[in-house]
Amino acid sequence: MKYPNGIKKTYESKVSYGNRGMTLEEDLNISNEYYRDTNEAIIYKKPTPITIHKVDFPSRREAIIRDARFGIPSTTDYNGIYRGKYIDFEAKETTNKTSFPLSNIHAHQITHLCRIIEHGGIGFLIVRFTSFNETYLLEGKDFFQFIDNEKRKSIPRTYFQKVGKLIPIGLRPRLDYLKYIEVNNENK
Amino acid sequence: MKYPNGIKKTYESKVSYGNRGMTLEEDLNISNEYYRDTNEAIIYKKPTPITIHKVDFPSRREAIIRDARFGIPSTTDYNGIYRGKYIDFEAKETTNKTSFPLSNIHAHQITHLCRIIEHGGIGFLIVRFTSFNETYLLEGKDFFQFIDNEKRKSIPRTYFQKVGKLIPIGLRPRLDYLKYIEVNNENK
Fold this sequence. Notes:
The structure is a homodimer.
Chain A: H1 24-37, E1 41-45, E2 50-59, E3 62-70, E4 78-82, E5 85-94, E6 99-101, H2 107-118, E7 122-129, E8 134-139, H3 140-149, E9 154-156, H4 157-163, E10 165-166
C-alpha cells in the first residue's frame, strides 16, 4: 500500500492502550497488517470456524445469522507466506504464572503444526503470559521436543525462558515476531 | 492417517450424487481431505468470515450465536502447503454459459492472489461452469494477463478452454487439481 505524501499510517489501535491492555490477537493483527503494508510477509488470521444452523433474510440484500455454534478449528489460526515459504502458527494467552497448559491447544492443531513442519513449512507457537506481559516464540521443533520427552500437560514458563525467544513489544510493528524465527533457506 | 487392515476410506460423500450434483466446494473439500490423507499436500478451506453481534450462553458450556453477519473475505478461500511451497487459490461456480463474471471475485481477493504470486507462492483460480459440468484451473499469471489486457468484466469460457486446464472429475481424488498446476522449483 502506498500512502499520499505526508500521511503516515500508524499501526496502533484507535484507542491508546499503552503497553498493556491489548490482546495478543490484536497485537498480531496490527503486526500482520504492518508486514503486509511493508510487503515483508502476507499473513492473516483465519476466521473462527462456525457452524450455521439458521439464517434470516429480512431483505434481498441482507442475511442475518440467527443460530450458529462455534466449531473446533482443524488448523492453527494464522498462516501465510514469508520469504517465499509457507508459514503457520498458533497464538495463545495464558493467565497462568508458572506454565502454559497444553489443553489450550486442540489436538488437531498440534497434529497440523507437526505436518506443516514435515512438509517444509515454518511452524511455531506464540505464547503470552499475561501476568508478566511476556510474549514468547517457541519454534515447532522445540515444542515437539517438549511434547515427545515430557509427560507433563503444561509447558513451564522456564522452558520458554530457556528455549523460546522473548518478543519485545515495539511500535512498528508492535510484535516483530518474524525477526525471531529461524528460516533455513537460501533467501535469508 | 493410517487405517486398520481391510478398512478402506472412500472420498465420496455419504449420499451418492453421481457425477453431478456435488458443489465445487464439496468436491474440493473431499479432494483436499484425500491430499492430506495421502500426505501429498496440506490444504484447507478457510472458514467464512463472520462478524458476531450477539451470543447467548444458555449454559456454562454452550454458546449460541444469535446475531451475526457475513463478512467480506480479505483473502482467497483455500490455502496451504504443497511440495514445500505456499499454495493459494479461489474457487467459484458460475451458471453463466458463455463467460465467468469477474464480479464473482472480490477486489480484495484479486489483490491478495497477485501479492501471493509476487511473493513466490503458487496462486490460481478454479472455475466451474455448472451448465457444462466443466471445471477449469486458470494459473494466476494467465488470470492477470487477462485482467491487464482486457477491459471486459467477464472471462469468456473460450479463454478457459484455450489457456486454462480442464480438470476431469475422478474418483480418488475427485478433482485432482494439483496435477494441473505449474510448480517451477527443484522439487518437481
